[in-house]
Amino acid sequence: MSNDNRRWLVWVRIALQFVITALGLVAIVGSGGGGFPDMSCVNTGTCPGEPWGLPPLVYADLGPNRVTVQVGASVVFTVDSNVDQPTYRWCRVPAGTDQCIEIAGAAGATYTLTRANLGDDGTTFRVTVTGANGSAYASRRLAVSSMPGMTYQDRDFLESDWTVTTAAVPLQNGPTASASRAETGGNPGPFRTAAYTLPLTPSSVRVFYSALSAIYDPSVQGAIYFIDFSEDCIVVSSAGLLPYTGPMIEQAGRIFVATRSAVYCKTPTWTAVRRSSLGAEDFELVDGPACAAGESCPDFSGSGAQIRLGLVSGADLGGGLVPPVQTAHGFDNWKVTVWRR
After folding, report:
1. What is the pLDDT of residue 239?
2. 246 and 219 assigned to the same domain
3. 153, 173, 278, 311: least CB-packed within 10 angstroms?
4. Rounded to 5 degrees, what are φ and ψ at 252?
């Protein structure tokens, strides 16, 4: 079968899924928002059943788009791919250029950059994987800091260490959430839990967790380059609706969320969630005064106001002929690293 025919069948598959959703046969959506099914499996060729005998699409993946390290650290790039009988070609694109310069001797699934230096800052590393079933490529950008990252973390989640607020849509007869601290069952020890009840109609609920001691002041500690966020998550109970967690910051009376970095908790066992090297452009204003024209919002510069770090969790229901839905999850080992240049 030609590549064009394979692509055509993939889009037929997606169209059929959307038709099923429109007819009301898909009521609860784990991917959240709009009532559309999660078709991310199409990109990796992992859709259950693979109808019509369609072979999986060829892919290559190097993980998050960016990674940040301190000067002198080694960086390991490992590609995940479904290419058969693969061969590998690695190259690097220096900052400010568009030419990918081949890396001599790099011919395996893993490439290690030994002792990164400031000259490597902004470099993009790319790998092309070629084999019997096709070719795919992946890339990852490296950021290098001259200083160690400043780390904030919490494994105990004492109520006195956090402020917790809830936002629900719609407000009247809408979804509800309850958040608490569980003494045992974490990874290990105590952990944070949240449970949600969503009504019949399309709705969403968010819980904002703000760490009272995790405050970074750019005017004192320096401009922010990137921020890493991580935690472990677990599904406590689910009715087919997956809850999520995502990075959150507060600054100048505003709440910002890295919505594109939200990750759904999918398993009843503890799973590590990592978001690498988020910049100011990755955060969206979700609450507080509107940002003025030309204002840095959020402001990661050296003149920016204090930033309180945190986490958002929640659930979305696209709607459908179903009774109220309940779902719950937990998170543990929350950790944030702020990188400066």
Report:
1. 74
2. yes
3. 173
4. 50, 45
